[in-house]
Amino acid sequence: xxxxxxxxxxxxxxxxxxxxxxxxxxxxxxxxxxxxxxxxxxxxxxxxxxxxxxxxxxxxxxxxxxxxxxxxxxxxxxxxxxxxxxxxxxxxxxxxxxxxxxxxxxxxxxxxxxxxxxxxxxxxxxxxxxxxxxxxxxxxxxxxxxxxxxxxxxxxxxxxxxxxxxxxxxxxxxxxxxxxxxxxxxxxx
Amino acid sequence: xxxxxxxxxxxxxxxxxxxxxxxxxxxxxxxxxxxxxxxxxxxxxxxxxxxxxxxxxxxxxxxxxxxxxxxxxxxxxxxxxxxxxxxxxxxxxxxxxxxxxxxxxxxxxxxxxxxxxxxxxxxxxxxxxxxxxxxxxxxxxxxxxxxxxxxxxxxxxxxxxxxxxxxxxxxxxxxxxxxxxxxxxxxxxxxxxxxxxxxxxxxxxxxxxxxxxxxxxxxxxxxxxxxxxxxxxxxxxxxxxxxxxxxxxxxxxxxxxxxxxxxxxxxxxxxxxxxxxxxxxxxxxxxxxxxxxxxxxxxxxxxxxxxxxxxxxxxxxxxxxxxxxxxxxxxxxxxxxxxxxxxxxxxxxxxxxxxxxxxxxxxxxxxxxxxxxxxxxxxxxxxxxxxxxxxxxxxxxxxxxxxxxxxxxxxxxxxxxxxxxxxxxxxxxxxxxxxxxxxxxxxxxxxxxxxxxxxxxxxxxxxxxxxxxxxxxxxxxxxxxxxxxxxxxxxxxxxxxxxxxxxxxxxxxxxxxxxxxxxxx
Amino acid sequence: xxxxxxxxxxxxxxxxxxxxxxxxxxxxxxxxxxxxxxxxxxxxxxxxxxxxxxxxxxxxxxxxxxxxxxxxxxxxxxxxxxxxxxxxxxxxxxxxxxxxxxxxxxxxxxxxxxxxxxxxxxxxxxxxxxxxxxxxxxxxxxxxxxxxxxxxxxxxxxxxxxxxxxxxxxxxxxxxxxxxxxxxxxxxxxxxxxxxxxxxxxxxxxx
Lengths: 189, 521, 207
Fold this sequence. Notes:
The complex is a heterotrimer.
Chain A: H1 5-26, H2 29-45, H3 47-53, H4 60-70, H5 76-87, H6 94-109, E1 111-118, H7 124-138, E2 141-148, E3 155-160, E4 163-168, H8 169-181
Helix pairs in contact in A: 1-6, 2-6, 4-5
Chain B: H1 6-19, E1 26-36, E2 39-44, E3 52-57, E4 63-71, E5 75-81, E6 92-99, E7 101-104, E8 112-113, E9 130-133, E10 150-151, H2 156-161, E11 164-165, E12 171-174, H3 180-190, E13 197-203, H4 207-219, E14 226-231, H5 237-256, E15 272-278, H6 280-293, H7 307-315, E16 319-320, E17 329-337, H8 346-354, E18 357-361, H9 363-367, E19 380-381, H10 390-413, H11 421-436, H12 447-458, H13 470-484, H14 486-495, H15 500-516
Helix pairs in contact in B: 5-6, 7-8, 10-11, 10-12, 11-12, 12-14, 13-15
Chain C: H1 2-36, H2 40-45, H3 49-184, H4 187-200
Helix pairs in contact in C: 1-3
């Protein structure tokens, strides 16, 4: 894997552009972004998968097959891109590809993608509220990538471009717990 | 034992609940890419600042703090302070916009805390009077003044010949088991009632050693004005790395604020603080570990290139503030452990060149029974003499000469037995003076008694005694002076010098004591 | 002195006896002369000039010899004896005076050393008292400090206990609250919460 920053950047842009082209063709630009992010999280979260995918003692074909198996049901364009990455030993580029793709996709869609996590499904009224609120702020269309996670108990978590608004009940409770259990009060921060 | 009532807890809880506010502002977040060896690589966080405090949200919402260290194009290398095991990949990381701060205040006196200011002595939470940044720019030239007050260590050999001033940086260097910590502890014990707040920072030591030090300080009533900051060998490298800075920050709170907790000024004098970093070689090792795991390029002895800057910016925080800034002071006593007396290793040379002098301890002296094992020949203090009281200067000058002459002659004396009378006298004087400087553990001596003891030696009262009786003579003389002639000591303290009358009185009193002194005890 | 006196007397007695015999000689001679001449009785009393003259000469010769040699020798010897005796007597006298002086001195010294000893004892007593007082006050201070420390420790322990209790209460109540909220909220209520939070939420693109 090249360590030259310019080179890696160029390579990841190539992957991202190819993916975007394929997504555009199948009209899946938005969905593919979500899948790519999910894929990145899965790879990151599992050391076994990460090491297996970049293990030279295993044949590249087998590794590719493993990747196909793990991410079965994902967009075929994405899967074939991953196959190439595995064969070319570029799995480490995945975060950069994801980033580049997100930028390209937003440009292509002419919108801002906001990740929304809630405990229950959103209804249309809420979707509209979120969209109008942030469309005004970004001066752009807003697309919502919705996730349902009961673990947050309630409330909403919004995030985009490395910034996040955490208005979930669990973090409020956690905050309360921390404040309640620390007695080292006094003094100004 | 006072009762813990339900209502007291209820009241506290209610008070705390009021403090909760539902803030839903957006914050910058990143994701942990990799974690291990006490460091984490974080994706995102493009707005993170070097040295910024990061919040890692671990499993079940558990918060672990980290320090942003390496800022790269699209990731941040951070060190974790705290429970490393509860953080894993894909965890969220938030910036806080703060740098690491430690709480400080009056309630910390007598407590043992970790480098984050949290109590570890099981005596309950500590109420902070304020917070100080761990990394703090040292005061500039205008804000300072020259060192002019002494730190009395209570150790004859140091106070007479290697005096330390308030605001000075004096290195204590020596092999293991030469009494480095003992000097530091003696200094703390002797600071009782001298308006000096002591901070003992234990870095990378055994927890049992720290416990012993705390126990000793408690026994001598020295914990009342002492704070112990402890990062033991079992704490993570980042904690050991920030421990001295945290100690300095806790001390700075007292220096920059007056007795009332308000910022120090012309009419609100800041306090005097003594910081002991025991020891900085372990901090350097912790920093080396951190740097290597962060993949910074190693330099000499595999230390990172900025290990000099690490120590210089820490020790530069030792200061004697100008009167306008409250005239507080922070004295630094860094400790460095050498290997087999090798002071030319990387860290010792660095710290020697940063400090205003050093106290060399040698193991061969230690085993010869010369304790404290200070080698007065190569120990120096570059600024402390201006802080010495005049009486001490009067007696110390001739002591230094006697000892220098003794060292010079000692080698000759080993060969020839045919020495002329003058040489023999000098040798005898030197041997007695060397003996006079021996001192027991945790037995600090007030400055006036030091002056009296050296005065007795300088004026030849010891010359007729056998060397083995010198220490007993000193002890009994001081006891005698305390009980029967206390006015002499008071006079020395009051006048800060030995006037002609005092000298006469002293000679007369010492002669009187010597008359009744039984050599065979 | 007496010896000297006696010697003098003895010498005088010798002289009288000698003088006596000289006067007696002519008388005997005259007597013997008187007895031979006119009346034999008187002649006995008158000196016989034939005998008298040589005797006188002999007497004078002996007198001269004795006066010249014997007498000074005897007196010299006596004088020497007298001075020796006198000297030794004087020396004895002096020795006596000296010894008396020494005795006095010794007495004085003994007195002073007795006094010194008393002083030292007093001083030692005083310093002992001082040390005792010091130790007592120190012990008292220590005891007080210990009490203060113990109180502080108890206080600290109480605080620690409260803190621990508080944090466990907080943990417990928060986890209970979390479970209750999670179970009890209906979807509509959830959405209401979301709406409320959304209204409070700040901007996402603020830097």
